[in-house]
Design goal:
Elements: E1 31-41, E2 56-64, H1 71-85, E3 94-98, H2 124-135, E4 142-149, E5 156-163, E6 169-175, E7 185-188, E8 191-197, H3 221-224, E9 230-237, H4 253-261, E10 266-273, E11 277-278, E12 281-282, E13 291-292, E14 304-309
Parallel strand pairs: 2-3, 2-10, 3-4, 8-9, 9-10
Antiparallel strand pairs: 1-2, 1-14, 4-5, 5-6, 7-8, 10-13, 11-12
Length: about 325
């Protein structure tokens, strides 16, 4: 988001806290904190099972837009997801856990249209210190990817984090509009993944999306991302999909580009949304099953786990330290 100008769960695994989201306006105290789409991908970007040799678990986490932007609460949510779903990954498998753009630093509950006030920033020191114990709660070979935006939103990053063989924290940083393609690639088990922030992967020549680097756009995915079988976009807010499938409309540039990439590999998108349902299905801007496999099939909604919480009752608390 540009700053405005001027298959199966293993039966013996511990299940996640899964439930239907509350009806808007109801008196239910618990609301979803996030929705986690669980997909298993092979080295070609095709859908596979968690038992398959070399399979990579991809967990795409879309967060409730009312969940507090405070970094302490966001760190706790990272832990909750690991505690509830980490057991779905066997010790000998790699996994990637993707959170939305601006997971740290962006407040999706801010009044719209968004201005610089929607980016309060975050305490970088607190997050870096806490990431080491957070990662220890995830499967051994896990990588985490989340948005990390500075105050005001003029610098929007992806942090890809993992624990090295020495047990130390490793962080790769990818910056919106400022990284060429080699700088966006991270190895996740048998897959090479390319990371983008909030629409810069769409090839759209608009102010909202723009080029991924200088004046470069993704126009020929199979050539430009020839060595990548996994395309990741960390969006900030309510990306519209297709409830009934079919061909996307001309303004659904995210889904169109993901379907183009489906001739070459799998693609994943995460965002903040409100969890609204229409006729028992997620509304088109509140979908969480944004995983499209090689071949064009989208992950079934039944593969989305709902992590419940009480997001609206939590107040922001911010400690001293370096602000981003």
């Amino acid at each position: 988001m540009r700053k405005p100008q001027g298959m199966q769960t293993r039966p013996h695994h511990r299940p996640a806290n899964i439930s239907s989201p509350p009806v808007p306006g109801s008196n239910q105290s618990q609301v979803p904190s996030c929705w986690v789409a669980e997909a298993w991908v092979d080295s070609d970007g095709c859908e596979t099972t968690c038992e398959a040799h070399g399979a990579v678990g991809v967990f795409a986490v879309s967060v409730h837009e009312q969940y507090p932007a405070d970094e302490h609460q966001r760190l706790r949510l990272l832990e909750e997801v690991a505690e509830r779903l980490g057991s779905h990954v066997a010790p000998d498998h790699d996994s990637l856990w993707v959170y939305p753009g601006g997971y740290f630093g962006f407040d999706a509950s801010a009044p719209r249209p968004f201005d610089h006030k929607a980016w309060p920033g975050f305490n970088v020191d607190v997050v870096r210190i806490r990431l080491l114990p957070v990662l220890k709660k995830y499967p051994t070979r896990a990588r985490l990817a989340f948005g990390a935006d500075n105050k005001g939103g003029d610098q929007q990053h992806v942090w890809v984090c993992w624990l090295g063989a020495d047990g130390l924290l490793q962080i790769e940083t990818i910056t919106r509009h400022l990284c060429d393609l080699p700088g966006r690639k991270v190895r996740v088990g048998s897959l090479c993944a390319a990371f983008f922030v909030c629409g810069e992967f769409t090839g759209s020549h608009t102010t909202a999306n723009g080029p991924y680097f200088n004046d470069h756009y993704l126009s020929d995915l199979a050539v430009q991302l020839n060595d990548c079988r996994l395309l990741i976009d960390l969006a900030h807010f309510r990306i519209k999909g297709n409830i009934g499938g079919g061909q996307p409309g001309p303004r659904q540039v995210h889904r169109r580009q993901m379907l183009r990439f489906a001739f070459h590999g799998a693609s994943v998108l995460t965002h903040h949304h409100f969890g609204i349902q229409t006729d028992g299905r997620a509304r088109n801007d509140c979908q969480s099953n944004w995983v499209i496999f090689c071949g064009g099939r989208q992950l079934a909604e039944s593969r989305v786990h709902i992590v419940l919480g009480n997001a609206r009752s939590v107040h922001n608390t911010r400690g001293p330290g370096a602000m981003m």
